[in-house]
Amino acid sequence: MNRDLLSAMVVERLLQAWPKAETLLRHDNCYQLMIAVILSSRTTDAQVNVVTEKLFRRFPDAKSLAEADGEEVEDLIHSVGFYRVKARHIVAAAAALLEKFDGSVPESMEELLMIPGLGRKGANVVLGDCFGKPAIIVDTHFGRVVRRIGLSDSENPAIVEREVKSLIPSADQTDFSMAANLHGRYVCLSRNPRCSECVVQDVCRYFSDRNRSSDDR
DNA sequence: ATCCCGAGGG
DNA sequence: CCCTCTGGAT
User: How far apart are CA A175 and CA A14, in angstroms?
Assistant: First the structure.
């Protein structure tokens, strides 16, 4: 099956399974979402949400966080892991908002990538979830899902983003990112994928390859 | 390519 | 014990 047809079927079914889901990172505004996204790198969202509850009470805006004591921030976010780098990043990110972007979160990919700790994945989360722009959010779940299905063959997130973006209508991109993410979390698990519960099993390359190899035994 | 790093699950 | 978790910077 060609990728245009495959992607159309996959989009339709995953959007039906997880209709217009939003990020699981708790936040009240774009500043908070930006900080939460920086903290979420290689960390479960549940861990991030525990930490941000305290963090945002102590530092409710970019100004207070930009002036924060580094060690206090490290202590507050310790349980998310990578706490030294992340503490440095979120303080510098808050400072960048004040110095370069007039205190608010910028709305373009180019500007978002100037913020310490934000890469393409984090920038796309902000673009999609905060500003309603079309975003392909390639995190560990999304990448695994689209590679297994056969929508991309690349391990490079930037290439996966570009390939999948070309396959999916702009209006569906952000919703599909979240749907594929949830599909990866709860069904297309990294270690023991639950293919019997999967809504795209019949068109999935990984599933057919898996059965082929078990037939050989 | 390597480092950052804690927490939870199997 | 090993693997994984919404990666990013050097």
Answer: 9
Q: Which amino acid is at A195?
A: C
Instruction: Please tell me which residue in A86, A121, A129, A175 is annotated as part of the active site.
Output: A121
Nucleotides of B under 7 A from a protein CB: 4-7, 10
- Whether A194 sits with its Cβ under 7 A from any strand B atom: the answer reads no
Q: Which pTM was predicted?
A: 0.95
Query: What span, in angstroms and rounded, lies between the C-alpha atoms of A158 and A168?
Result: 16
Q: Give the residue whose CA sits closest to C9 at C1'.
A: A117
- Domains in chain A: ranges and CATH: 3-21+136-216 (1.10.1670.10), 30-131 (1.10.340.30)
DSSP structure class, residue A50: H
| Residues A140, A75, A97: CA angle, nearest 5 degrees | 65
Residue A121, amino acid:
K
Look at residues A148, A147, A152, A126 and name the one whose alpha carbon lies nearest to residue A137: A126
Closest alpha carbon to A106 in A90, A82, A123: A123
Query: Would you write out chain A's pLDDT as a tens digit for each of its 217 residues?
Result: 899 999 999 999 999 999 988 999 999 999 999 999 999 999 999 999 999 999 999 999 999 999 999 999 999 999 999 999 999 999 999 999 999 999 999 999 999 999 999 999 999 999 999 999 999 999 999 999 999 999 999 999 999 999 999 999 999 999 999 999 999 999 999 999 999 999 999 999 999 998 876 544 3
Catalytic member of A86, A129, A139, A175 = A139
